[in-house]
Write a structure and sequence with these properties.
Blueprint lengths: L22 H11 L1 H12 L8 H17 L3 E7 L2 E8 L7 E7 L8 H4 L3 E3 L2 E3 L3 H20 L7 E7 L10 H7 L5 E4 L9 E5 L1 E10 L3 E2 L10 H13 L9 E9 L8 E2 L2 E10 L5 H10 L10 E10 L8 H14 L5 E4 L4 H6 L5 E2 L6 E2 L7 E3 H17 L1
Parallel strand pairs: 3-6, 3-7, 7-16, 8-15
Antiparallel strand pairs: 1-2, 2-6, 4-5, 5-18, 9-13, 9-14, 10-12, 11-13, 17-18
Helix pairs in contact: 1-11, 2-5, 5-11, 9-11
């Protein structure tokens, strides 16, 4: 990874150009010195099962990180809910000079007992562990960047709100209220989802809607009363094809029928099924078409091909599209910080959603993918590039120096 130790800071608060102190070089040195400590902390964090709703594991990692944040002088509040505790830590609380948000999640997609079966390990350039990239390394990057800048007395003179939540993997049903509250008067937000391998910055995320469709027909014997039957599976199949045909690749509008359930349990198909159900998702890039797409989906309830069938669709957009235009100014700050390190940061769009969508929906300029480089996300082989843990810590520390 290319690093440029000749970039320093101007006198004052800026961190660009050459100056009396080479802060970018000092940050790099500190980040490298802290790499082992970061890995030790990650080893501890991934040793606990923290699947969404696993309160026992959540309590463990929350306790560990609370101590670390309090050591920085942060005031820490735990917001408890159905799925566990969310950390809300504040530095320079109520500063009149502005406010920034940092967000990473502590929950994973894995079941109880899996962390012990797939323990932390280092193989060559990579560190392995369940949830290590998504998103525990993100929390470690955020914390150590704050730690380094605090030690250098270079934290921005703003209120810094750190939110480590417990339910992102299921759409953040409880922590969305925290984001809404803390977004008030916030200038910027930084989200520490894992970085892509090309080290870019996400400025735009797609919206995602999750839906369930149910169809009711009339179950009858397929031989003796066929004409009286109303086949719910056939009606559902028609709707599945219509949904599939809504996809427009050129517009990055993706409709995915993911599961179908229907029919009956007879060993041979002797009955017309009277009930069927499916789940599907809608992903789109352009927020301006979201309302129209939702109308088209809902309209399928009235496009009945078998008289007597009834169709019901339920669901919503869990993630509202994250608008690129609102985030470009913050992206430019990140690019400048990257140049101080000698790296170029590409701008990235992704169709997936994260807490960045929730925060950005409140009008806060937001960038994402500030965590370590991810591999094998949501699999038992999940791992990170160790060098990227250091790089992303440097990057965010340099960003903090520009605020």
């Amino acid at each position: 990874m290319n690093k440029d130790e000749n970039n320093g800071i101007k006198e004052g608060n800026g961190m660009e150009g050459k100056g009396k102190e080479n802060i970018a070089g000092i940050i790099e040195k500190r980040a490298k010195e802290y790499q082992k400590a970061q890995l030790d902390l990650l080893k501890e964090l991934v040793s606990y099962d923290t699947g969404s709703g696993n309160k026992e594991g959540n309590d463990k990692v929350v306790g560990i990180l609370t101590k670390e944040l309090e050591a920085l002088g942060a005031s820490v509040k735990l917001v408890k809910g159905e799925y566990g505790s969310n950390i809300v830590a504040k530095i320079n609380e109520n500063s009149p000079k502005g406010k920034i948000l940092l967000s990473a999640h502590l929950d994973t997609v894995f079941k109880p007992g899996e962390a012990a079966k797939h323990p932390f390990k280092i193989e060559g350039e990579y560190a392995y562990g369940l949830g290590i990239s998504d998103d525990k390394a993100g929390a470690v990057v955020a914390y150590y960047a704050l730690k380094i800048m605090n030690e250098l007395n270079k934290l921005p003179a703003k209120e810094i709100v750190v939110i480590f939540n417990c339910d992102e993997e299921i759409g953040s049903p409880t922590s969305k209220d925290i984001f809404k509250e803390e977004a008030k008067n916030a200038e910027y937000a930084f989200v520490f989802e894992p970085a892509r391998e090309n080290n870019g910055i996400i400025t735009q995320r797609g919206g995602i809607g999750y839906y369930t469709m149910e169809v009711w027909g009339n179950e009858v014997h397929a031989g003796m009363r066929f004409q009286e039957g109303r086949n719910a599976v056939v009606e559902l199949a028609d709707k599945a094809l219509k949904l599939h045909n809504m996809t427009k690749l050129e517009d990055k509008l993706f409709v995915n029928v993911s599961s179908i359930d229907g029919g009956n349990d007879f060993s041979v198909p002797v009955m017309l099924p009277g009930y069927a159900k499916m789940k599907f998702s809608v992903r789109l890039k352009d927020p301006d078409i979201m309302e129209q797409v939702m109308k088209e989906v809902k309209a399928l309830e009235n496009q009945i091909i078998i008289d007597g069938c009834k169709v019901k669709i339920q669901g919503e957009f869990v993630y509202v599209p994250m608008k690129r235009e609102n985030n470009l100014g913050l992206y430019e700050i990140a690019k400048k910080a990257g140049k101080n390190m000698g790296i170029e940061l590409d701008e990235i769009y992704t169709a997936s959603g994260s807490d960045a969508n929730h925060i950005a929906s409140h009008g806060v300029p937001t960038i994402d993918a500030l965590g370590a480089y991810y591999y094998g996300i949501h699999t038992k082989e999940e791992h990170i590039l160790i060098a990227s843990l250091t790089e992303r810590t440097q990057l965010f520390a340099n960003i903090l120096g520009l605020l």
